[in-house]
Amino acid sequence: MTGSPSITLNNGVSIPQLGLGVFQVPPAEAQRVVETAIEAGYRHIDTAAAYNNEAGVGAAIKSCGLPREELFVTTKLRNGNQGYDDALVAYDESCERLGLEQIDLYLVHWPFPSADRYVDSWRALERLYAEQRVRAVGVSNFLAEHLERLFGETELVPAVNQIELHPTFQQRDVADFATERSIAIEAYSPLGQGADLEHPTVVALADSYSKTPAQVVLRWHLQRGHIVIPKSNSADRIRSNFDVFDFSLSDDELEAIDAMESGNRIGGDPRTFALSQIR
Ligand SMILES: NC(=O)c1ccc[n+]([C@@H]2O[C@H](COP(=O)([O-])OP(=O)(O)OC[C@H]3O[C@@H](n4cnc5c(N)ncnc54)[C@H](OP(=O)(O)O)[C@@H]3O)[C@@H](O)[C@H]2O)c1
User: Fold this and answer.
1) Which of 31, 80, 105, 270 could cysteine-pair with 56, CB 3.0–4.6 Å?
2) Strand ranges for 52-132 from DSSP E
3) Mean pLDDT along residues 193-222
4) In the CATH scheme, what is the homologous superfamily, with its name and number, of domain 6-194+226-231?
5) Looking at residue 1, what is its pLDDT?
6) Using CA positions, which residue lies closest to atom 8 of ligand 1?
7) Residue 47, CA atoms < 13 Å, CB-side half-sphere
8) Mutate which of 34, 146, 189 to test ligand 1's pocket (most atoms within 8 Å of Cβ)?
9) Using an 8 Å Cβ cutoff, are 167 and 142 in contact?
10) For residue 6, what are the β-bridge partners?
11) How many CA atoms lie within 13 Å of 239's alpha carbon, on the beta-carbon side?
12) Taking the domains of the chain in order of start, what are their residue ranges?
């Protein structure tokens, strides 16, 4: 079995480039889904406090038998817990639910600008990082205007910006702004939640390589240098989404997928998204 290549973050920490996302994986299924992924070769799991499945992810980490350092675990600070003190407490609670002493990557889930607490939240993550309680810290859904405020008012440059990124919604301005500042781009909803898989460009490439449309899209992400975290509940799709290391797309084929850009946002707009994410 071929494993995922890794990307080195701006603080020297290594992250497996292909991981499993568990948004919308029901709490009762999270353990099985993550165990299946680890068996298939995944070593990177992306969850969030707001997904309400950290405990299931933690149960799989415990049961899988791998040494802790072989797994890379990301979780996120939910909107309702933003603010300096609340973020410190929320981090401890996530560690407890995951059964981990240290999380590999902790992200501010959304800028949630109407609350205006993301700078204070970031200061809490800076402290967790300075105290070596977390291996790397980053943000998610941050536009240039939000990153500029962090640069102006805080010290630490985020290691990662996790953003919606798939062939029909590539956010090239956001991605370029981050990469020029040594912030790695992590692509969420990388398959467009399934919507991009029926596009004729992807279907034709899948046919020509005898691969699935999802494998073609994931290959595009890997070759474009994104960290990428597809989600599936299905054991077969979890496995096939990881079977992407035995073919590669040509430059022309990568450009054909680049040309699918059509402004097709699926998730929330970071300027206005304001769910507390607490059920
Ligand atoms: N930071 C954020 O704000 C944010 C927001 C959204 C997502 N995320 C992260 O990104 C991860 C992935 O994003 P996502 O879950 O929104 O979308 P996604 O990974 O683009 O797509 C998942 C959907 O595609 C289906 N699918 C998966 N593999 C497939 C395949 N091989 N063939 C056909 N369909 C397939 C899944 O169905 P089945 O499950 O039935 O296979 C599911 O409906 C999340 O799990 C989460 O970790 C982060």
Assistant:
1) 31
2) 72-77, 103-108
3) 98
4) NADP-dependent oxidoreductase domain (3.20.20.100)
5) 58
6) 188
7) 27
8) 189
9) no
10) 16
11) 6
12) 6-194+226-231
51 classed as catalytic: yes
Q: Kindly give the pairing relationship between strand 14-16 and strand 6-8.
A: antiparallel
Distance, CA of 7 to CA of 177 (rounded, Å): 18
241 lines ligand 1 (CB under 6 A): yes
Quote the pTM value: 0.98
Q: Dump strand ranges (E) for the chain.
A: 6-8, 14-16, 20-21, 44-46, 72-77, 103-108, 134-140, 160-164, 184-188, 227-228
Edge-to-edge strands of the sheet including 160-164? 20-21, 44-46, 72-77, 103-108, 134-140, 160-164, 184-188, 227-228
Q: Tally Cβ neighbours within 10 Å of residue 46.
A: 27
- Choose the catalytic residue: 51, 106, 118, 188: 51
Mutate to test the pocket of ligand 1, among 24, 219, 232, 264 (most ligand atoms within 8 A of CB): 232
